[in-house]
Design a protein that fits this description.
Number of strands: 8
Strand order of the largest sheet: 4-7-6-8
Distance between the termini: 103 Å
Strand content: 25-35%
Number of helices: 4
CATH topology of the largest domain: CD59
Helix content: 25-40%
CATH class of the largest domain: Mainly Beta
Largest sheet: 4 strands, antiparallel
Amino acid sequence: MQVSYILDDVGCLVSYNLMTLTGMMLSSIFFIAIFASASALECYVCTNQEHNKDKCLNTIKTCEQNEEMCLTEYKWGSTPYWDQGAAKQFYVSKRCATKKQCTDLRSRYMPFCTYIWYEDWKCSECCQGDRCNYYVILGASSTKSSITMLAATVGAALMLWRFYV
């Protein structure tokens, strides 16, 4: 059995058994591994659900190490082939994703993210943080568009009112 000597916090010479040090290091590595896996990102997951409830709010996945974002895709369209004139329906999908997947999907969906009720559209949102994709947020762009449309409607109504008065 080999004994080593080191200085403790107060500066006293203390002997340590190398077996004890090895055991302490292994314990530390074990606790770090447990902590690292416990701190992995968790996201809500579901695929093409009709609403943001039930499965989309009850199914949680621990993401892979390289997946640092929670991704939500929401679509408005007809089933199953997104035909013009068919009944429209809301679809939600949630999953873990990488930053690159989020960026790629967002730029691919951007031209189709219109929120116009009579057209088929697709949008996506990404967030960071455990279970951050609980809510489906229709993005700041939809709020901005709604305010712009409201202002345009009020402006047009005022112009018509002045014309007829």
